[in-house]
Amino acid sequence: MLLRIREARKSVEEERNRLAALMSELNQSVVVCNLDGRILLYNSRARLQFKVLSDAPAAAGGGEIIGLGRSIYGVFERNLIVHALESVQEHMRRQSPRPMANFVTTTRAGQLLRVHMAPVLASPDPEAGPVVSGFVLMLDNITRAFEAETRRDQMIHSLTEGSRSSLANLRAAAEMLEYPDLDQELKERFLKVVRDEVQGMSARLDETATAFADALKTRWPLDEMLGADLVAAAQRRIQNTLGLPAKLEEVDAELWIKVDSFSLLQAVGYLVSRLVDEFGVREIRLRLTSAGRLAHLDLIWSGHAMSTETVMSWELEPMSFAGESSPLTVRDVIERHDGEIWLQREKTQHRAFFRLLLPQASPQAEVEASAVPRGDSRPEYYDFDLFRQTEASHALDDRLLTDLAFTVFDTETTGLNPSEGDEIIQIGATRILNGKLLRSESFDQLVDPLRALSEASTRIHGITPEMLAGQPTMAKVLPAFHAFAAETVLVAHNAAFDMRFLQLKEGSTGIVFDQPVLDTLLLSAVIHPDQDSHRLEAICERMGVNILGRHTALGDAIVTGEVFLRMIPLLAEKGVRTLGEARQASEKTYYARVKY
User: What class has domain 148-219?
Assistant: First the structure.
């Protein structure tokens, strides 16, 4: 039996890891919630997008508004989700093969989102059929696309309405000019109408073409591709479209680049066609090499040289060759890639070449590195136990410690006397949910204390005045941390010290931390009342917790979180299982009387 249980657990864990791996590779933002709107799964794309969409204070990444156990109603209006769920359930009642709902909404940060909702189904009663136990949200930020479509519609409206008026005036002027006995003065007047309207139509067409080119540039996707594939495609295009021999001279087979292949191949074909038409070039050689973070794509030919002025004129003319035309220029294409185009000569071989500087693709591990959380993010990005969690109908004090969400935090300060003007210079925090320390959901922010920092304090935490220069002040950081810690129980070691600093800022910031607080120092005294030391290092040694990153706010918060998780079963052995019981037991210890 035990073997079967272990095998079943292993199978479930493998399925979870597969799902986490698939989720992490999706280009679309995905969030899964239970019926209470609590987030139980999300991918890295959603984490990044929600930071952009958030109107939370812009400190420590904007304050996390997405995380396991957090409410989706921090982003969407509750009524909107409820209405969409009702639509899904109505589709289910009609036995629709795909019970889904779609809606568009504006976030509090003013962004436009298209949301696709699908139900998570469960079958508690085989006879009753499946019921909705949660929902999946797939999100697309369509703000830019909507703005582009709006500009395009306005552009088309302006072009059509303006042209209609001009055509009417031209028709009337043409009809008047047909009269044989029209005097010269009227004839000149109508000819002027024709000239003015033609110029106006020409100007509108030019403006539309320019606007179209700009809109086209914003829509270009830059995709990663193997450089050798791009060179091979360029070789085929030159040979098939222009009938010109194209040979490969040197191609880095391992080089990856990030390009819009369609427009880039258009630019290559256009440049080669100009070389053929104006200089009679009979062969092109292609070369692709690495140069640091850039790639060099060279179009090489023998024979005639050309002036820089000629190259510039080619760069700035709309591309047209072999029956293809585009409102874009070579310069447009190069600028879209944040690159350059150079004309260079190889005098010893009597050759010249165009060198296109293109961005190399970042190694996969570095892509969006700022958005990838610390630690092993995949396993910590989901927690299916939340499906069984419902909104509490009783006070938090009656809740089991194992059922609560916690924000474990720590601060570094200019000194030890908050009442005498010492200030916080760093806040670090992480979260605990369903007995798991979510290292990937962290808050780590330096703070400008607006006062001098002593050398003595720097020796303790390693933070220097130079590190604090330009950092946000507490007026900006505190609201962000408040958002991060919302709807959780606060946990800290020697919490009275940290909370005193926060409480002294209530008057100036209006930010009040009114949630329950647990102190691992006091809980240690509950568990081990006969021990002489309840310093964090001593507790870690007793409980077998490795100390990493000591005297950094986030490092201490993570260590405190590990200690707290080990304390929960030890507290249960002493009959302390709920939040209320933990607070009452803490208040009876000697250390609870220490004030700051």
Answer: mainly alpha
- What is the C-alpha to C-alpha distance for residues 43 and 30, in angstroms, rounded to an integer? 6
What pLDDT, on a 0 to 100 scale, did the predictor assign at position 417? 84
Domain boundaries, the chain: 2-141, 148-219, 223-365, 394-593
Task: Identify which has the larger pLDDT, 69 or 210.
Answer: 69
pTM of this prediction? Answer: 0.57
Phi, psi for 492 (deg, rounded to 5): -155, 160
More confident residue, 230 or 440: 230
pLDDT in the model for residue 5 = 77
CATH of domain 223-365: 3.30.565.10
Nearest Cα neighbor of 51 from 64, 41, 39, 40 is: 64
Classified as helix, coil or strand, 427 is strand
Cβ contacts of residue 537 below 8 Å, gap of 6+?
547, 550
Which element (helix H / strand E) includes 342? strand 340-346
CATH architecture of 394-593: 2-Layer Sandwich (3.30)
What Cα–Cα distance (Å) separates residue 33 from each residue in 27, 109, 533? 19, 22, 43
Domain 2-141 in CATH 3.40.50.620? The answer is no
Q: How far apart are CA 227 and CA 252, in angstroms?
A: 7
Backbone angles phi, psi at 218, to 5 degrees: -70, -20
